Amino acid sequence: MIYLALFFAVFVGYGVAVILKNKKAQKLSLPLAFSGAFLLAVTLFELLPEVYQTTSEFVGPFIMVGILLQICLEFLSKGAEHGHVHIHANKNTFPWLLFISLSIHALFEGFPIAGHSSMFIGVLVHKIPIAMILSFFFIKAKYPLVTILSFLLLFASMTPLGSWLSSNVSEIIAFKDELNAISIGIFLHVSTTILFESSKDHKFNLAKLSTIIAAIVIAYFI
Ligand SMILES: [Zn+2]
Ligand SMILES: [Zn+2]
Asked: How many helices and strands (H and E) does the chain possess?
């Protein structure tokens, strides 16, 4: 069930993007702000305390590794993980760099999901707007449908794969806390970047602030 939901979240995003393709993508700023605040909150409320409870050794450095890894991935993806794509579209070639960086990112998102129900919802909520933005970019750049669908198919498999690995492969299970700490770093970087970029010019926006507060409150009580 969890694997299927994570897999189909990407295609829900794609479906919405296809339906909305003529409308402005700016409408996405509220869902994006919600998903960023929600992801940050569940990371802080559920995952971070648990990792510190099982082991406090090396947690901090591994979180830093996650943040650095995400910074490096964004050199390749130009920010697709947090909601905008501005790579040079060449519709004749498969966007490998974007694909590799997004896949590594999505794989790490899968590691802490098993056994963490709030984290699961947090990643699910984060995936849909990201998949929409990615799809908007592909559609606008006029990539062939085969390229778009194979990209999304493989990308959609990565988070379920990470989640499956983290509960079935003993080598991965042995490093569970370290991997979860790296994922925390990735979540912290991605979610705070989403929040940072959603406050355009740092102007006060009541709708956005209410959305962010609502996301934090919901994350606290689920
Ligand atoms: Zn950015
Ligand atoms: Zn992500």
From this structure: 10, 0
Ligand nearest to the CA of 186: 2
pLDDT at residue number 77: 82
Residue 191 CA, ligand 1 centroid: distance in Å: 11
* Residue 23, domain member (yes or no): no
Report the separation in Å between the CA atom of 100 and the middle of ligand 1, taken as the mean of its atom positions.
18
In a domain, 20, yes or no: no
DSSP of 120-155: HHHHHHHHHHHHHHHHHHHHHTT--HHHHHHHHHHH
> What own/partner pairs with CB < 8 Å and gap ≥ 24 does 26-32 have?
28/83, 28/129, 28/132, 28/133, 29/198, 29/200, 29/208, 30/207, 30/208, 30/211, 31/128, 31/129, 32/83, 32/129, 32/194, 32/198
Tell me whether residue 167 is in a domain.
Answer: yes
pTM of the model: 0.90
Domain total in the chain: 1
Structural domain that includes position 102: 2-15+29-84+91-221
**pLDDT on residue 197:** 82
Q: Which of 90, 91, 71 is nearest to 82 (CA)?
A: 71
pLDDT more than 70, % of the chain = 95
Separation between Cα atoms, residue 15 and residue 122, nearest integer Å = 20
Q: Which ligand is nearest to the CA of 192?
A: 1
CA of 174 to the centre of ligand 1 (A): 34
Domain membership flag for residue 21: no
Distance 177 CA to ligand 2 centre (A): 19
